[in-house]
Amino acid sequence: KSASILAPIIALSVSAALITITVVVIEPVAKQYQYASYGYSVSDGLYYKYQDEGDGISVFDYRSDTDGEYVRVPAELDGNRVVSISSGAFDYTNITGISLPSGITEIPENAFQGCCWLQEVQLPDTLRTIGACAFQNCASLTDVQLPASLEVIESQAFSGCFMLESVSAAEQSNLIIGADAFRDTGLEFASQTLSQ
After folding, report:
1. What does the angle CA 73 – CA 133 – CA 192 come to, to the nearest 5 degrees?
2. In the chain, which residues have pLDDT < 70?
3. 97-99/70-72 β-pairing
4. How many helices (H) and strands (E) does the chain have?
5. 107 close to 84: Cβ distance less than 8 angstroms
6. Is residue 165 a contact partner of residue 143, using CB atoms and an 8 Å limit?
């Protein structure tokens, strides 16, 4: 979701007695896209696309001028309250951390799938559901603190998080964990590792 430009310019001039070749290399241009012209809104130097959900907005795309960002999704964009993120909104990006605002109740399927540099996750105290494959293959994630509000972790939500060794949850008796939610992680048995 990011790129740089390397544009060599070669000029060749020929005369009867002399051939001159001039090579001018333009250094890679910083990734400075005009995201605003493509409908992105900016917050803290990061760019988001969103859609109206009636009671607020849902973030469905994210861009950055640099790699390895810690992303704090804002509570508001353009004066509109952020109430959700969409499936795949941050998938396969190079983010290193994510913090979601209070008010979000669900992390949908594939939202952060394949974010292999993701190391830190701060979940809101309003979260009720972590969708299927939401954090699948986030290979750098080592620990997760689940909020007391959480009710459901769907299938394969954290599968393939090879470095995940600690998942802690506040006291709750109704947490439902889907099939293979913690498959191929550092947790041998998820039900025994959820510390209260």
Report:
1. 100
2. 1-34, 36-37, 172-173, 188-196
3. parallel
4. 1, 16
5. no
6. yes
Which pLDDT belongs to residue 19? 62
* Dihedral in degrees, nearest 10, Cα atoms 108, 113, 116, 118: 0
What are 36-87's pLDDT values in tens digits? 667 888 888 889 999 999 999 999 998 887 778 899 999 999 999 999 999 9
Q: Long-range contacts for 164-167 (Cβ within 8 Å, ≥24 apart)?
A: 166/142, 166/193, 166/195, 167/143, 167/193, 167/194, 167/195
3 state SS of 195: strand
How many Cβ atoms from other residues are within 10 Å of residue 7's Cβ?
10
Contact (CB, 8 A) for 26 and 9: yes
Rounded CA-CA distance 13/36 in Å is 42
